[in-house]
């Protein structure tokens, strides 16, 4: 099954940024895409005119929504062939300046939501693998999981947890026909920076000035498609050179980074605050 044609793929966080690009790219490859997001109107806008894609409003930080989401996909489509676990929240602040609700939201969405949607989907994915030869779990991770830089410490911790989950799950299910992939982007041009600080979503026409510097979401979406059609599990950095971030965990580089970054943490936070203010208008 190296083709996406008629495969049923669930995409979380499908209303904007990487998720939206993934939905469009999968639909263009003739997959049957089910996209979820918290914001019903933004999700409807994202899927307008996209043949082969359906919208299911759901918040993956909610246990009730997670169960209902997977059940609805299987009920309406009769099976589930792949999940793209993309929904995530960020909050750029030093640890002591991060509100409790932001901490809980990041853990609930970025880590618990990923693990539990995968858990709920796995019986259906294993069935698809047994009947059709393969199924896929794909997680949008982050280079922040490989290189922890302030003011993204808490966000990085959630993504590091996801990174470990991918490696462990791969060792559980590979022999049973389920491929497990991770895509690890560097900075991506999306609204995540201002949305993480509480800015409400806006229309496409108004979003341009709110985007963070980085690569186009479509570059990540292309690697998602390559993974879902690959004969083996993949872990890919986008762009590829972002994989060098792993060197930050190697002694003595890690100790040098501890000293250098801790001395600059306050300045980095101030630069981040200005970036947020500039994009919020």
Automatic annotation (TrEMBL):
The lineage of its organism: Bacteria, Bacillati, Actinomycetota, Actinomycetes, Geodermatophilales. It comes from Blastococcus saxobsidens. Belongs to the short-chain dehydrogenases/reductases (SDR) family. InterPro entries: NAD(P)-bd_dom_sf, Sc_DH/Rdtase_CS, SDR_fam. GO terms for molecular function: oxidoreductase activity. Keywords: Oxidoreductase. This is NADP-dependent 3-hydroxy acid dehydrogenase YdfG.
């Amino acid at each position: 099954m190296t083709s996406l044609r008629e495969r049923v793929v669930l995409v979380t966080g499908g209303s904007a940024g990487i998720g939206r690009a993934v939905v469009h790219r999968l639909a263009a490859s003739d997959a049957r895409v089910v996209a979820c997001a918290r914001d019903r109107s933004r999700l409807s806008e994202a899927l307008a005119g996209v043949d082969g894609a359906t919208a299911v409003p759901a918040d993956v930080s909610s246990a009730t929504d997670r169960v209902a989401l997977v059940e609805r996909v299987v009920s309406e489509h009769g099976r589930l062939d792949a999940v793209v676990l993309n929904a995530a929240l960020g909050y750029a602040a030093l640890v002591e300046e991060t509100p409790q609700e932001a901490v809980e939201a990041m853990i609930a969405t970025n880590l618990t939501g990923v693990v539990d949607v995968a858990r709920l989907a796995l019986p259906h994915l294993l069935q698809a693998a047994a009947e059709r030869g393969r199924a896929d779990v794909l997680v949008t991770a982050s280079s922040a999981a490989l290189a922890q830089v302030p003011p993204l410490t808490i966000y990085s911790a959630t993504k590091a947890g996801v990174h470990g989950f991918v490696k462990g799950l791969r060792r559980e299910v590979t022999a049973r026909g389920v491929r497990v992939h991770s895509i690890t982007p560097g900075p991506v041009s999306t609204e995540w920076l201002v949305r993480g600080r509480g800015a409400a979503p806006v229309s496409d026409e108004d979003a341009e000035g709110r985007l963070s510097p980085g690569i186009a979401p479509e570059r990540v979406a292309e690697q998602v498609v390559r993974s879902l059609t690959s004969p083996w599990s993949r872990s890919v950095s986008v762009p590829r050179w972002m994989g060098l971030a792993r060197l930050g965990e190697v002694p003595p580089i890690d100790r040098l980074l501890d000293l250098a970054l801790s001395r600059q943490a306050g300045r980095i936070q101030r630069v981040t605050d200005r970036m947020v203010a500039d994009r919020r208008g």
